[in-house]
Design goal:
The chain is an alpha/beta fold. The protein has 2 domains: about 180 residues, Rossmann fold (3-Layer(aba) Sandwich); about 150 residues, Phosphofructokinase domain (Rossmann fold, 3-Layer(aba) Sandwich), CATH 3.40.50. It has 11 helices and 15 strands. A 7-stranded mixed β-sheet has the order 3-2-1-6-7-14-15, with helices on both faces. Strand 9, helix 7 and strand 10 form a beta-alpha-beta unit. Helix 1 packs across helix 9 and helix 5 crosses helix 6. The longest helix is centred in the middle third of the chain and has 22 residues. Bound molecules: 6-O-phosphono-beta-D-fructofuranose. 6-O-phosphono-beta-D-fructofuranose (F6P) binds next to strand 12.
Length: about 375
């Protein structure tokens, strides 16, 4: 379906799923381009699809986006719940899951929204696709995640900032590792992809990097640490991706969260690895779980630029009538890909990855 740019006058924007540094930069760019280039009115929906379902929205003019470029988080709020196609509502004292998408369409109509920019991960963009396919709602998706695991784009914004945070953490952990002759284990995020662990591990001079794509054995990890000891290096730094797992083992699930776009909350492998290292080597070992620090803070210049390009492109593509698509980076261009092709295709670290080869040549162990 295509409409001309003259047909759009009011567009909506929302952020869904987990936050990532750069969301505000996308919102800012989208608002600025929409207002300055096309004269659109922009309505921001609050807290992801929750705001669409409950019609919680506010106008975003250029004034509302002043000063947000360097700010982490999202001024619109977000949630990884509230799927309008499976929405829990209370009826006669009982919670039933309903399709409230007709209500969403009513709210959009009431707001006079003719196009929608949806910034989110796989969960949010799947809803975007369904709104487009079922209701012909002009939507354009903007991919975000610190995990950098969306195959259709060369990179997602948020990853570079998370990588910086993880690298800085490793630099700091080196201090205690060296001073106390300890093994320091850092657990990083990334879900089922090892991008943050691999890149931070190389950038932060780790000795062992454990990623989901390469199942490890603790023997190999211990072998590396003991070899270092023998060579006079009394400390070691180990980076563990939260989705890493031992050969023949499973990922460590901290909690199952019903109703979330991503019900499995990962975490705990860092502790397990640290305990096993201490037991096997008798070297004092400590673990740090970096957690949501990786999602916070001011986006790096790289993320600000990518997010700005995504936000501007989303509005430009919407104006061109490119609906049901997602903006993506195909270096050096920003392009679009149909949501139907982009979704559910995860980009994990290929085991033949050149950086892995380089890391191995540098003596870094992957525990395999
Ligand atoms: O997908 C981004 C991410 O930060 C993952 O790396 C992590 O596993 C997950 O989200 C944590 O989600 P939550 O904030 O819901 O605990």
């Amino acid at each position: 379906m295509s409409r001309t740019k003259a047909q759009l006058r009011r567009i909506g924007i929302l952020t869904g799923g987990g936050d990532a540094p750069g969301l505000n930069a996308v919102i800012r760019a989208a608002v600025k381009v929409a207002v300055r280039e096309y004269g659109y009115t922009v309505i921001g929906f609050e807290d992801g699809f929750g705001g669409l379902i409950e019609n919680r929205a506010r106008r975003l003019s250029e004034r509302e986006v002043v000063g947000i470029l360097p700010r982490g988080g999202t001024i619109l709020g977000t949630t990884n719940r509230d799927n309008p196609f499976h929405y829990p509502v209370e009826e006669n004292g009982q919670v039933v899951v309903k399709d409230v998408s007709p209500q969403v369409m009513k709210n959009l109509e009431a707001q006079g929204i003719e196009g929608l920019v949806i910034i989110g991960g796989d969960g949010s963009l799947t809803i975007a696709k369904e709104l487009w396919e079922r209701y012909n709602l002009p939507v354009i998706g903007v991919p975000k995640t610190i995990d950098n695991d969306i195959a259709a784009t060369d990179q997602t914004f948020g990853f570079d900032t998370a990588l910086n945070t993880a690298t800085e953490a490793l630099d700091k952990l080196h201090t205690t590792a060296e001073s106390h002759h300890r093994v320091m284990v850092l657990e990083v995020m990334g879900r089922y992809a090892g991008w943050i662990a691999l890149h931070a591990g190389v950038a932060g001079g780790a000795d062992v990097i454990l990623i989901p794509e390469i199942p490890f054995t603790i023997d190999k990890v211990v072998e590396k640490i003991m070899a270092r000891r023998k060579a006079g290096k009394k400390f070691s730094i180990v980076v563990v991706a939260e989705g890493a797992k031992p050969v023949g083992g499973q990922v460590v699930v901290k909690k199952v969260v019903e109703g979330s776009f991503e019900p499995l909350r990962l975490g705990g492998i860092g502790n397990q690895v640290a305990e096993q290292i201490e037991e096997e080597t008798q070297i004092e070992t400590r673990v740090t779980v970096l957690g949501h620090l990786q999602r916070g803070g001011s986006p790096t210049p790289f993320d600000r630029i990518l997010a700005t390009r995504f936000g501007a492109a989303a509005v430009n593509f919407l104006a061109e009538g490119r609906y049901g698509e997602m903006v993506c980076l195909r270096t050096p261009e920003i392009m679009t890909v149909p949501l139907a092709e982009a979704l559910h295709v995860m980009r994990r670290v290929p085991v033949g990855n050149q950086l892995i080869r380089t890391a191995k040549q540098m003596g870094i162990s992957f525990g395999a």
